Amino acid sequence: MSLSAKMRRAPLRAVTGAFILSSGVGKLQADEATSAQLHGMATGTYPFLGKVNPKVFTKGLAAGEVAVGAIVLAPFVSPVIAGAAVAGFSGALLNMYWQTPGMHEPGDPRPTQQGTPLAKDVWMLGIGAGLVVDGLLEPAHDKKLEVRAALGEKKAARGRRARRAKKRAARANSEVVSQARETTLALKADARKRGKKAAKKASQKAQKKADKATKRLAEAREEYGPAAADKANLAGTAVRGWIGEHGPAVAEKARDTAKQARDTAKDLADEYGPVVADKAKQARGAAKDLVDEYGPTVADKAKQARDTAQDLAEEYGPAVADKAKQARGAAKDAAERAHAAVR
Fold first, then answer.
1. CA distance linking residue 72 with residue 79, whole number of Å
2. How far is Cα 309 from Cα 197, in angstroms, rounded to an integer?
3. HSE toward the beta carbon, residue 94, CA cutoff 13 A
4. What is the pTM of this model?
5. Measured between alpha carbons, how far apart are the two ends of the chain, in Å?
6. Residue among 139, 136, 140, 14 nearest 75 (CA)
7. pLDDT tens-digit series, residues 57-81
8. How many C-beta neighbours within 10 Å does residue 13 have?
9. Which residues does 16 contact at the CB level (< 8 Å), separation at least 6?
10. What is the rounded distance in angstroms from the CA atom of residue 283 to the CA atom of residue 159?
């Protein structure tokens, strides 16, 4: 039995039980006239009570009222039992009210002035019936409250689980984000480290190649420099000897040949000049057409050739420049000697 049910029934049981108990205690002190009056009213409804002594009847009635009042007041007594006791006691009084002539109008339950004191006992019948119904329906009501409380507890538990799951998800998300951030930073640091290492390695490799190329160039210079110098000296000596021996004759022949060539060229120009001019004009037109047709292709080929020449020049330029410089020096010396010899 729940506390709320006890508190709900407490006013009804307290008032009714106290009233019945007080009535029973008062009848214990009843005199003979009161006992005879009560006995007479009871025997009119219940004739079998006529054999009982009025004093004994009054004492028994008082004891019954005290017992009913105590049952109703006792909180440990079931509301069904207390309600049945009150309903039975009030039912007996109302039956006496209904069976006693003069208590109500004939065929009408409404009391007369004489029957009003007994008619008021109908409220005890209502209280007793209410206690019985309440007691019978209490298990269903308590079960409903229990189910409602269980549902509320389950809902609260689901809410708590959902909140805990949300917190765990938030913590997991935070941990994942933190881990991802740390992983990203570690990858960036590792990438920077690898980049520096690769750059250093490439720089070292390039330096090694440069050193190796420099070494090879120096070795080539050391290996072929003296031989080239000797050959250049021998060539210069041979040129100087040839010029000293054949220089005058060559110069004379060159002057004669140049004169003949000029005369021949003049004759040919006089004879074939107009034809050559036409041919030259046609050749310029054809050259212009070829330039328009193959110019882009030639430009691309020229660009490729320039790039290739630039690469070759960058690779072999220093060595070739040294060789060319030496050859130009040797040729210049030989030409100066030959010119001096011709003069």
1. 8
2. 35
3. 16
4. 0.38
5. 151
6. 14
7. 888 888 988 999 899 898 888 888 9
8. 22
9. 72, 86, 124, 127, 128
10. 100
Token pair belonging to 307: 């790039």
DSSP 167-183: HHHHHHHHHHHHHHHHH
For the stretch 132-161, what's the b/e string if a residue is b when 16 or more beta carbons lie within 10 angstroms of its beta carbon? bebbeebeeeeeeeeeeeeeeeeeeeeeee
User: Could you give the C-alpha distances from 57 to 14, 36, 45, 111, 328, in angstroms and in order?
Assistant: 27, 9, 14, 26, 166
Torsion angle (degrees, nearest 10) of CA 106, 108, 112, 115:
90
Distances (CA, A) of 145 to 153, 158, 217: 12, 19, 105
CB 39 within 8 A of CB 54: yes
Block residue for tokens 């909180």 = 75
Both structure tokens of 235: 């060539």
> Which two three-digit tokens encode residue 283?
């050749």
- Closest-CA residue to 93 (of 111, 69, 75, 119): 119
Instruction: Determine what percent of the chain is predicted with pLDDT higher than 90.
Output: 2
Cα–chain-centroid distance for residue 335?
88
Helix (H) or strand (E) holding 84: helix 79-99
Alpha-carbon distance of 220 to 214, in angstroms, equals: 10
**Number of helices (H), then strands (E), in the chain:** 6, 0
Q: Is 319 exposed, middle or buried (0-12, 13-18, 19+ CB in 10 A)?
A: middle
Q: Give the residue extent of every domain in the chain.
A: 3-120
Task: Report CA-CA distances (Å) from 139 to 82, 109, 119, 277, 300.
Answer: 17, 36, 33, 136, 105
53 touches 88 (CB < 8 A): no
pLDDT at position 229 is 64
